[in-house]
Design goal:
The protein is mainly alpha-helical and 167 residues long. The chain is built from nine helices and no strands. The protein folds into three domains: 56 residues; 40 residues, no CATH class; 49 residues.
């Protein structure tokens, strides 16, 4: 779809497309988004037709303003110190990243996620003196810590290795 850049001669559709592109660039300037997130954000306003949004997405992809593969890698790199692999996969899926892109992202040899280090960091954040009082900790308190780490998406084996509990 070609459009006219002369403001006085622009059709309503050309104006809408130019406006949609401008809005999309403004949205991704502040915070990178996946294609789905951007599409949802543009639809939310209700100003643009699906055709205009599709054309805008094609334009942004062509000029590499949005790229779900790069988005997934940046997201994982940024958040790998906070979340488990399971939670990272779930968050990427919620952001509209396709399963094959998610799988490829986690198969990348450069990506190393040390879940045990993350568990230890979270454990010490929740209970700074855990290792000093590990033996005298009551079972309810230990159970709360276990539940907290389960909710963060970590498996029992890794948690128990870090907590050094054999129960």
């Amino acid at each position: 779809m070609a459009y006219n850049l002369d403001v006085k001669k622009m059709s309503k559709e050309d104006w809408s497309l130019a406006n949609c592109k401008e809005r999309a660039i403004y949205i991704i300037t502040n915070y990178s988004k996946s294609e789905k997130q951007l599409r949802d954000k543009l639809k939310k306003g209700g100003k643009y037709t699906d055709e205009i949004i599709d054309e805008t997405i094609k334009f942004l992809k062509k000029h590499n303003f949005i790229n779900d593969v790069d988005f997934a890698k940046r997201f994982v790199e940024t958040h790998k110190h906070i979340y488990s692999v399971k939670v990272l996969r779930q968050k990427l899926y919620q952001k509209g990243i396709k399963k094959n892109i998610i799988d490829d992202t986690f198969e990348d040899e450069e990506l190393e996620i040390d879940e045990e280090a993350i568990i230890k960091k979270l454990l010490l954040k929740k209970c700074p003196d855990y290792y000093e009082r590990e033996r005298e900790m009551d079972p309810k308190e230990r159970q709360k810590l276990l539940a907290y780490l389960f909710r963060k998406g970590f498996g029992y084996d890794k948690i128990s290795d870090v907590m050094k509990c054999n129960s």
